[in-house]
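Page 47, continued from p. 46.
Same chain as before, 274 aa.
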Amino acid sequence: MSVLTGAPELLGRTGDVVLLDVRWALGRSDGREQHRAGHLPGAVYVDLPTELAAGASPEAGRHPLPSVQALQAAARRWGISTGSRVVVYDTTGGLAAARAWWLLRWGGLTDVTILDGGLAAWTAAGGELEAGDVVADPGDVVLTSGGMPVLTADGAASLPAKGGVLLDARAGERYRGEVEPVDPRAGHVPGAVSAPTTENLVTGGRFATAAVLTERFAALGVRPGTTVGVYCGSGVTAAHEVAALAEAGIEAALWPGSWSQWSADPDRPIATAP
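Result:
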């Protein structure tokens, strides 16, 4: 699976690529304003909470998957048609953009990649920015579902006991239960292994090499043939971990509800040991 596109490769090819600007971070809502101030030429702004997720609920989590119909309607607004090449980016090392990468792959598209290093890599390579809003010509893409594996809460809970590896992509202090800034309870799913998403990145917000990522995940118990699942707070940065695993040649399933779903259920056990 091709996961990444380098900025030098993208230079000069923006005319035949659908560019999606997915600037979002927990606790911030100014992604659209950032996009208006400067974005890759022709890039369409994608609002993660409303276009890459369904409505939040305790039963489904903070960022449930959108329906295929809603995702398809959004993808057409972004200008995606059958056969389109799509490149997604942000300014946070792909931590938000990977959600769009994962969803479009889940929806059946195959030519979707993350701009390695995001907007900063683009400008460092000599790429120019443009300001203002971008409205794309409507596309005609048809999406399905099932293009990427998905876990339920019960499936995630049973994975370690079945010999699989369940990776917790949140920061270590959240995994250990030392802090919990968003969700109802602190801690982690029993049996899960701490694997902070930020450790997939190197200087400049770029992904580590495939060899380095392979070593990293092997140290966390991921071996050839291992069944792997990933969760985070609400299924956003876990998509980045799935992308990093794919870059290392490892298929992993995403648990969309993640910790926001698990911690909202008082009957679900919680672990806090390192």
